[in-house]
Amino acid sequence: MRSLVSYVGVPSRDLDDVMQDAMVRLWERREQVRSARNPDRAFHRIFELRSVLVQRDLFEIPMKEIAETRAIPLSTAYKWRTRALHGARGALARRLAAE
């Protein structure tokens, strides 16, 4: 994949960033496809993300404790919180725009 990205003209100084972005987009697309196949999984995933946000921001539970309780890496807990926060902001913006 690196050679393909280089072949299409991406400067060598940007290869790592472009590769990382491509991998993140592939992973997100994979999750979208999996969620579309199983709506219960999508609901469960949203619940997981939001519950991390609530535990951290509402109940002020340390992220390390949240990660340990869920048996996930600390970085994953932070990513879930960030995704939930972006989702909440988007929902709020849509609601305000509808009013």
In words, what does this structure look like?
The longest helix has 25 residues, at 74-98. 83% of the residues lie in helices and 0% in strands. It is built from 5 helices and no strands. It has 2 domains: 1-37; 52-99. The chain has helices at 2-7, 15-37, 39-58, 63-70, 74-98. The protein is an all-alpha fold and 99 residues long.
Tell me briefly what this model is:
This protein has helices at residues 2-7, 15-37, 39-58, 63-70, 74-98. The chain contains five helices and no strands.
List the helices and strands and how they pair.
Layout: H1 2-7, H2 15-37, H3 39-58, H4 63-70, H5 74-98
Helix pairs in contact: 2-3, 3-5, 4-5
- Residues in β-strands, percent: under 5%
Low-confidence stretches: none
How many domains would you count in the coordinates? 2
SS summary, helix count? 5
- N- and C-termini, Cα separation: 46 Å
Helix content: over 70%
Structural class based on helices, strands and sheet pairing: mainly alpha
Mean pLDDT: 84
What shape does the CA trace take? extended
The biggest beta sheet is recorded as:
none
SSE arrangement, N to C:
HHHHH
C-alpha-based Rg, rounded: 17 Å
What's the total count of β strands? 0
Features:
single chain, 99 residues, mainly alpha, extended
